Predict the structure.
Amino acid sequence: MKAVYCEKLSDIDDLVVREVEAPGKPGAGELRIDIKARGVAFTDVLMTRGEYQVKPPLPFVVGGEGAGIVTDVGDGVAGFAPGDKVLTPGGCAETVLTPATRVTKLPPHVDLVAAASFRANYHTAYYGLQRGRLQPGETLLVHGAAGGVGLAAVDVGKLMGARVIATASTPEKLAVARELGADHAINYSDGFREEVKALTGGRGADVIYDPVGADVFDESMRCIAPFGRILIVGFVGGRPGLAKTNHLLIKDAEVIGYTVGALARHDPAWAARNNAVLVDWLATGKIRPYVSHVLPMEQTTQALRHIVNREVIGKAVLVS
């Protein structure tokens, strides 16, 4: 079988497609899964460079977000059978052995490309908006709204009853944000503070979802509503934002950092509840993952290059 490996920490052009022996029979508690679709993200770029907080030993298989078909079931595993569609860790390999406890069964009608595209982004968005205590009728400002986690926040924010203002850098990206439900869309290349204040009658945004950081965070502090909450999602703008405590004091505002990895470690029951809700929303069409690029697994480097060049809207997915 084929698998895509990072053999040294460097540029994504150094990734290697290997022919390796396929895994055999699953052991007790395991499933054998043929992965059909894999979501990749900027996190994968950082891992290949050694710049992510998680540093797996070399060599490692690129990616970790997959959807596929169960082909064999190990002893002691209940609730799964060959032919089941599932979400699984595994990334850019054609076949994996995975503990059944790490696998989520999908309804038969769910599209595997959509399934592979949604898990990381939508978990990040949903948990973040929970941490931000988003309420129906509040204004949610989503930065980087055409990126994977940003577009998911637009989708989930509307489902939670918010009025959503999306920011992005091109008309094409803003159009997709509107397609997923954004009530207003702002090109933030020339700033956004005054337009946000105008759209909210001078009040500002109740919850600000910020995967960008840098200057975007600094400007967000100037259009946050009283008692507002800023969610720190990431720093694709190149540097962390600097929260000035006098601004927080004046606005009675909060800055909230979070990661879904920490949720899974510290409160696995909460993470499991969120996973069940999101899979139900996916199965019933309440959320609509957006995939702009679908490529064969052998073109993993090209998919990651599209991400680095900010050409991906929503998600890039690799198929086999």
Remarks:
- The first strand starts at residue 2 and ends at 6.
